[in-house]
Write a structure and sequence with these properties.
It is built from 5 helices and 2 strands, in the order αααααββ. By secondary structure, the chain is mostly helical. It has a domain of about 80 residues: DNA polymerase, domain 1.
């Protein structure tokens, strides 16, 4: 086992990552090294970009798998090599969903976490009894849910 892999495994354990996450991150760095036949610390930004594009376009990784691939390699560069990846220069692929979300929320007055998405409640319906807006269900003696007795 190489010293860099040992350092990465130690950093993953210290960061509290789960066992399967540790295995996946180490696998992604190993695949990157195998792709070029040299240690990942010797790779240029262009080589990183090429490997990400190859994984996405040729290997056909799904967006979730691409995120795992990127996060594993990013962890290696940030925590083992203590250097930043070339995200700002555009070498890293960005999923269509992420770019679409960024465009949607750009300039929005409220953060995404505070905006209510359409649901039964925001359409004026009670999730418990859709026929009566804002009504709370009551139970009759038989345990059946009925509409509020004051509403008809």
């Amino acid at each position: 086992m190489t010293p860099l892999r040992q350092q990465m495994m130690a950093a993953l354990q210290l960061s509290g990552k789960g066992e399967r996450t540790q295995q996946a991150y180490v696998r992604e760095v190993r695949l990157l090294a195998q792709f070029y036949g040299k240690s990942p610390h010797l790779l240029s930004e262009q080589e990183l970009q090429h490997s990400f594009l190859h994984r996405q376009n040729v290997d056909g990784l799904a967006p979730a798998s691409m995120r795992l691939c990127y996060r594993g390699i990013r962890f290696f560069y940030q925590h083992v090599l203590q250097r930043e990846l070339c995200q700002r220069s555009g070498c890293l692929p960005q999923s269509q969903r992420a770019s679409r979300d960024q465009q949607h929320w750009r300039g929005h007055p409220y953060p995404k976490a505070f905006v209510r998405h359409p649901s039964a409640r925001s359409r004026g319906q009670s999730p418990s009894h859709p026929a009566l807006p804002g009504a709370r269900p009551t139970r009759n003696p038989h345990g059946l849910v009925t509409p509020h007795p004051n509403r008809s």
